[in-house]
Amino acid sequence: xxxxxxxxxxxxxxxxxxxxxxxxxxxxxxxxxxxxxxxxxxxxxxxxxxxxxxxxxxxxxxxxxxxxxxxxxxxxxxxxxxxxxxxxxxxxxxxxxxxxxxxxxxxxxxxxxxxxxxxxxxxxxxxxxxxxxxxxxxxxxxxxxxxxxxxxxxxxxxxxxxxxxxxxxxxxxxxxxxxxxxxxxxxxxxxxxxxxxxxxxxxxxxxxxxxxxxxxxxxxxxxxxxxxxxxxxxxxxxxxxxxxxxxxxxxxxxxxxxxxxxxxxxxxxxxxxxxxxxxxxxxxxxxxxxxxxxxxxxxxxxxxxxxxxxxxxxxxxxxxxxxxxxxxxxxxxxxxxxxxxxxxxxxxxxxxxxx
Length: 355
Description:
37% of the residues lie in helices and 16% in strands. The protein has helices at residues 11-15, 18-27, 59-63, 67-83, 96-105, 119-122, 137-147, 163-170, 194-207, 220-232, 246-254, 265-272, 286-289, 337-340, 344-353, and strands at residues 2-7, 32-38, 53-57, 88-91, 109-113, 127-129, 178-182, 211-214, 238-239, 258-262, 277-280, 308-310, 313-316.
């Protein structure tokens, strides 16, 4: 049995497919499960023994090629999938691209979304996923197994890292009583104000007595924002921003007493590590994207806003009518007033209740 899962999305999306992969492997223990993902997201599946092969699609590089070269690279990519002779293809992309790959694969069983507008494209699939409305993305992935009458045995997120990653974190000699703060996102309309983050860091360090470790991606914008946060701080957190890989960040996070951040990949990594999460949500909805709890293995979040809990995790957001809007900030400005105007006293109360 050969199975291909298509997930050309972001880092967090790929991590949230791991419960589906695990259940497929439990049901078909001799199967080979390949996953096709965008370049830059493959670390979420590296070292996962349930995955036979990670097929990486370099979308950014291909876009920079001439038309003829791009067509040739697409042809090679599709040809290799066709040659692999998959029995089942599961398209979690919900778009024309995934449907096209599923069609070309030659698989007898093809699972995909019924919400694609083109009837011709929809006819690609032999099995359809139910509506994803109001469902956590973990459950959306598991619906692919349910559609194939595969029982769900386990809903845990999984992430793995190497001994070298572990040794890197060991070399930092951190105390286990630290709070991991990852305040930024490449989708920066998800971010709270730097002033709020600085106040959170100072509260954790100066009032609660916990050391704070800051992380971020190694990109100029985020490093600049971290510098601004540090300038606003009265305390002296440990700054590892831009210094760790994703897997090293995961190894660091596993040791934290609490994670504080926004709706981003590191939040999902923290959930996979069973590290308690306090996440700030604005335009995106926690019923789809809230931190998954591996112990209760279900989502209790709703779209209404306000402070919500699922297991050990807490989602904090303002309770206002326009949330969640799923926009790129207010009027697509990449600035979300619902996030930059949080009440720091309420935030402090949430932090203290989780420690």
